[in-house]
Fold this protein.
Amino acid sequence: MDSKINIIQTVTGSYMVNTYLVSCPETREGFIVDPGGDAEKIKKLVTDNNIQVKYILNTHGHADHVLANMELKHSFKTRICMHKDDADFFIQPEIQKISEKELGLAASGSVDIKLGDGDLLKVGCLEIRVLHTPGHSPGSACFLVKGNLFTGDTLFVGDVGRSDLVGGSFDTLLQSIKEQIIVLPRDTIVWPGHNYGETPTSTLAWEMAENPYITDFILAEE
């Protein structure tokens, strides 16, 4: 696996979201995944590591994962990216009301780039592949970069995301994991949206052996 990638994991916001600062060591260009609040903390990470932020990537549109979007966008003069299905879903006033009631947080701002499954983004020497993984929300997505998979709330260490929120579906979530995630190389590193497991990260090989949602619901059917 190519190791020419820098990944910093930090926890932000009251919902304890895993926010990632990912960068190319050769060019110092980078991107932020799921800025869940604590904008000043994220800014300091960017400044201390001398990173030029090219994109803000949201794995999905739930408010706890986008809270610092707008402040960071203006600070770094960058663009916010989200899968088109969540960008269109969470902008609906009636959906915003339901989601705010569910999470106790109001989603902030708009999206600059609407992503689709299979889209590729370039950041320095890094190529980011978008994997559409609906189920936690209609437009949930994972981002694959040099053998590292940023899974948001689709896949946690030993667990999967909720499917009982507006726009969610358990069957769809399992189908996404089956078709988009477990087909990846076993040494793929899983970087989840929350630290709900025993370790902050895992590998796809570990998940396929130990995650009961994969072993009991997906692999058991094969």
